[in-house]
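Slide 14.
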Amino acid sequence: MSRRLARETALQVLYQIDITGETGDVQGIIQNWAAEFDVSTKSIEFTRKLVEGTLDKKKEIDEKISQTAHEWALDRMNTVDRNLMRLAIYEMNYCPETPQKVTLNEAIEIAKRFGGEDSARFINGILDKMMDASEK
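Slide 15: predicted structure.
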């Protein structure tokens, strides 16, 4: 199972849902992206867990982002960055089997691939602050 591929697929799904607003067929969207990336069955299960969990906890996660990123309104953030942070925050807070440092590093690497020029640094700053706050 490739957790990186599962995370990248989850990001694509969350991005599409954020842009289109369509939430009626989340499973279909996951299947479409899984087929696009040739994701294994085990990785699809992890993708599904990440997407469903992130969507379920979106309001709570968005509040955490807003509290941490004082100078950035959520709706003004790059769509990739916003959704990647949502995904990473979900995994950091609700998937205890994955160490937070691993999730942080994965988010940074995915940001380098899918985000803008400053995405990795921006995401690192926000997630690092959240990790510091959770360790206190």
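Speaker note: Helices lie at 3-20, 26-37, 41-56, 58-68, 79-94, 100-114, 119-135.
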